[in-house]
Amino acid sequence: MRRTPAGLAALMLLLTAGGLTGCSKEGPEDTVSAFLSGWSGGDLNKIGFVTAAGAEVPAPEVLTQMRGLYGDLLEQKITVSGAGDVTTTGDDATAPVTVKWALPGGVEWSYPSTVRLTKAKSDGWQVVWEPAMVQPELATGDKLRLRRVAPERAAIVDASGKALFGPQKVVVIGVSPEKIKDLPQLQKDLAAAFRKVDVDVDLGTLKTRVEQSDPGAFIELVTLRRAVYDKIRPQVRPLAGTVFREETRSLAPTREFARSLLGTVDQATEEDIGNSGGALAVGDDTGHGGLQEKYDATLRGVSGLSVVIAREAADGDTEDTKLFTAEPVAGKPVKITLDTRVQNAADQALAAEKQPSSLVAIRVSDGAVLAAANGPDPGGVNTAFTGQVPPGSTFKMISAYGLLARDAITADTVADCPKTFTVDGREFKNSHDAALGKVPFHVDFAKSCNTAFAALAPKLGPAGLQEAAGALGIGGKWDLGVDAYTGQVSDGGTATELAAAVFGQGSTAVSPLAMAAATAGVAKGQFQAPTLVLDPAPAATPAQQLDPEAVAALRSMMREVVTSGTGSALRTVPGKPVHGKTGTAEFQTGSADTHSWFVGYQGDIAFAVMVQKGGAGTEAAVPAVKRFLTTLN
Predict the structure, then answer these.
(1) Which end of the chain is more exposed for a tag (fewer CB within 10 A), N or C?
(2) Alpha-carbon span 472 to 329, nearest angstrom
(3) What's the pLDDT score for residue 570?
C-alpha cells in the first residue's frame, strides 16, 4: 500500500473539513432568491424540487403544473418577492413571499404565500413543490378563473334627476322545436297575435331557424314589455311550441319614447365586444344608438373583476371559491332636458302618421329641448335632429325677419302677390295657382305667397339672407352633446337661386331641430342655441339678441297665420294663442311629392313638425301640431 506523506494528509483533512463546514453553514436564502427570480421569469431550471413526500420533481414539470394552476391568469404578469426572513428548523425552512398579479384593466392582486424548503436526503436546499405555494387555497387539479363583475349601469335622467330609463319587466317570447306540432299553423297564430299589439315580427325565417336548431333550443322571436305581453297572453301561451322567459331590462317609459334619440340598452353583440378594446364581454349590456351609445362608457361604468378557484362539486356542477374582487365602478347618470309630458304628447301626435315624420319641441325661455319624436319607426334615424331637408315656406319666417330687420319693408307695405312671377326665365308660382293681388306684406306672409317673396328677394339680397339665417341659428356652430344638423343656407348666388331661397327652396337645407330653435328665437327675441345634455354639459354658445321691432312685427304676422291664414285649423286649439308658419317643401325636381311643415310656438313651447311626403303644410303637419297641442293642454 502506498502511504500518503503525513503533511499532505494533514492538508487534505483540513480542506475536507473546510468544505463540509461551508455546506452546513450555507442557508436557504440563496435558494429562495433564485427560486423567486425563476418563478417571476418563468425559468426554474436552476432549482431543485421535491414533493412533500420527498420525491424529486423535474423543474420543467413543476413549471407545467404551475401554469396549469394559473388558468385564466396564464397570460397575466406575475411577480414574486420575499416578504421577510427565512425560518430554518433543522433540515426544513420556510420563506414568506408576496405574489403579485397584474390583472386585466390595470387591476393588481397581491397576497402572501409561503415557500417551503428542505435539505433532507440531499446535499443542499430544495424547494418543496405544492399547489398551495402558488396560492394558499389551491389544490391539485384547481384552476384560477377570472369572473367579470358587472357595474350598475346609470340612467339617463331628466332635469329633475328622475330616470327616463329604468328597470321594467319584459317577457321574451320564443319557440322550442321539440314542442312544435304544426309549424305553419303556429306561424299564422303568432302573426295574428302580434298584429293585435302592432308588433312587427319576422316569422318568414322561422322554418329555417327551427330546422337548424337543437330540439330543445329556445329560439327567440320578440321581447315585449310585460303590459304589452299581457294583452296577447291568452292567445300565445297555449300555442304548441311557444316558450317564454321573464326578464328585467332597462327601458324608456314607452317603446316610442324618444327612442331614436335615447337609443336602447341591449346585450353586446360580437361586433360590440370586438370593438370595445376589452371593455365588454359576452353577457354585458351596452348602448345601441342615440344617447345610450354615445355616452355608453359614462353610463356603463367600469367592470369589476373577481379571481376564483373553480372546482367541480360532487353533483358535477362547478363551484367558485372567491379569492379576490376588484369592485366595479358604477356608471354616472347623463342628465338631459327632455320632459316626459311633452315627449309623450309628441310621440302621440306622430302615432297617426304613416309617413316618416318628426317633431321637436323647445322651451322658449331657456332653449331646453323638451321633445324629439320620430315616426312611424321610433327607433330609426333621428331625423328630428339630423334630417337635411328643404324647409319650404317655413323659411319665410327667417326671410321675413331679414326684410324687416333691414327696414326693406314693413308688415304693412303693399307687396303684390300675382299668380306667377318670373326671374331670369324661371317661373315661380303659388300653391294651387293662388293670386292675392296687391295686399299688405303681412297678408302675403299669412297666406304664404311665394311670388311676393320671390319679388322681394333682391331687397334682401344674398348677404341679407345669410345674415337673417345666421341670426336665427341656421348653419351655426352649436353643440347639444349629440349629433345634430344646424342647417345650410343657400348662397343666393344667382337671381333665381335667391328667389327660391327666400321661401325655403333652392339649396337651403335644415333639420326640424334647427327650425324649432329658430322659432324659439323669434318667440324670445333672442336666439339661444338649444340645449339637450345638461351633464356632462357640452360647451355653451353665447346668445344672440334679435332686432326687437322686426321680431315684434314677425310675431304678429305669425299669429295671423293661425287666425286667418294657412294655419287656421289651429285657431281652436286649447291653451294660449298659437303663432306659426306653414310650409310645403319641394324636394325633387319633377316630382309632385312635397314635405309638409309647420313651425310655431304656444306660450313657452316652440316646435317644428315635418312630415315627409306629407303634401302641403295644412295637410299633414298642421293636424299633427293640433294633436300635439291638444294633448299638451
Answers:
(1) N
(2) 43
(3) 97
Grouping H, G, I as helix, E, B as strand and the rest as coil, residue 205 is: coil
Average pLDDT over residues 281-295: 88
What pairs with residue 601 in β-bridges?
A: 579, 606
Query: Does pTM surpass 0.85?
Result: no
User: Cβ atoms within 10 A of the Cβ of 488, count?
Assistant: 15
3-state secondary structure of 464: helix
Q: Where are the alpha helices (DSSP H) in 387-433?
A: 396-405
Instruction: Confirm if 145 and 71 have CB atoms less than 8 A apart.
Output: yes
**Paired residues of 343 in beta bridges:** none
CA atoms within 13 A on the CB side of 552: 4
Phi, psi at residue 398, to the nearest 5°? Answer: -75, -45
For residue 178, what are the CA distances in angstroms to 109, 219, 221, 389? 47, 11, 16, 52
pLDDT for residue 14 is more than 80: no
- For 457: left if phi > 0, alpha if psi spans -120 to 50, otherwise beta; the answer is alpha
Residue 622 and residue 633: Cα distance in Å, rounded?
A: 16
pLDDT above 70 for 155: yes
Structure-derived torsion over alpha carbons of residues 349, 353, 355, 361, reported in degrees to the nearest 10: 0
The pLDDT value given to residue 590:
57
In this structure, the chain runs to a length of 633
Residue 566: Cβ within 10 Å count: 23
Phi, psi of 473 (to 5 degrees): 85, -5
Q: Are strands 426-429 and 420-423 parallel, antiparallel or unpaired?
A: antiparallel
Sign of CA dihedral 530, 535, 540, 546: positive
Q: How far apart are CA 46 and CA 23, in angstroms?
A: 18
* Strand 334-336 with 156-157, pairing: parallel
- Per-residue pLDDT reduced to its tens digit, 590-618: 566 888 999 999 999 999 999 998 777 68
Dihedral sign, Cα of residue 221, residue 223, residue 227, residue 228: negative
Residue with the three cell numbers 408576496: 98
**pLDDT for the residue 589:** 58
Quote the cell numbers at residue 318: 362547478
pLDDT band at 295 (very low <50, low <70, confident <90, very high): very high
**Beta carbons of 514 and 485 less than 8 angstroms apart:** yes
Q: Interior CA angle at 211 toward 206 and 214, to 5°?
A: 110
pLDDT digits (tens, 9 = 90+) for 553-603: 999 999 999 999 999 999 999 999 999 999 988 866 556 688 899 999 999
| Residue at grid coordinates 327696414 | 407
- C-beta neighbour count of 403 within 10 angstroms: 30
Contact status, residue 201 vs residue 273, Cβ threshold 8 Å: no
Q: Which of 25-34, 205-214, 307-316 has the lowest mean pLDDT?
A: 307-316
Backbone conformation region of residue 594, classed left if phi is above 0, alpha if psi is from -120 to 50, else beta: beta
Q: Could you read off the pLDDT of 135-152 as tens digits, one per residue? A: 999 999 899 999 988 888
Three-state secondary structure of 111-125: EEEEEEEECCCCCCC
What are residue 67's phi and psi, to 5 degrees? Answer: -65, -30
